[in-house]
Give the backbone structure.
Amino acid sequence: MKLLHTAPLYATALTIASATTSDLSSSLQAILSNTNGNPLYTYPTDLTRDIIPKPLHSHNDYWRALPFYTALSAGCISIEADVFLYNSTLYIGHEPSALTPARTLTSLYIDPILSVLRRENPPSPFVPPNMTATKNGLYDTSSTQTLYLWIDIKTPGPTTWPHVIRALDPLRKAGYLSTITANGTAISYAPITVIGTGNTPLSQIQNLSAGRDYFYDAPLPLLDSTFANITRLVSPIASTNFQRQFGVVNGTALNATQVARLREQVRVAHGKGIGVRYWDLPAWPVRTRNAVWRALRDEGVDLLNVDDVQAAAEGDW
């Protein structure tokens, strides 16, 4: 039997689907843009609504025009900040000549993160007074998602790391830091999970257990040898330099030797319950970069280290 209305209905659907904003009435456009600020179309925790968290690591995040906020808008669940200690202040930058008095760990990261978390956890008459205050994460679409905050120590670790611990105090007092449970057997995840990398001293992390609210970036290739005693309670995610491990990637595919090493390193880490991140990935040509992104994702790498967060977030690679 011929469905007489099939073609006209299909054509109509295509016409509707292809309608542009200019095709809409001014009244409907006003409603969609909420020009009159109707309270029906907003709510207290909507700062990050519609942003989908993605397993992306914002590498050298401080290079962005808007550190932290650019990564947040792209849905990154991991960001990295390089810190230098001078005169008891932790400055942010890639090298000493890039530092400025205004750009500190507190001003670029601690305060903005705390600001967003306060917006995601506002006082509410719908939260009974006898209930524990909410501990929602940064993303409205996934309130239990933690943000991995990597602190890359560039000055001597033993003297710098204690200053980092103190700088985290506003997040700590608010209960926003992931911690080791009281019995020392698990991680109690909270909105922010701090991982020390670079010159961070393992000795100032590994020997602490219950209540510790910071972690260590273990060397991924050594998890089955000199760092075999590292557990996920010390290092929930381990990383290594991609170029040093795999060398040059020719074209748009890893070779068999590269794939075999990748799979083995992922296998060892995951066997310990430890996540995987590779840094110093190829950035150009773009087709090679995209091929490496695909390979790492397909082989189970947990955090994709990216410099172009918008391109990575779009997922069209």
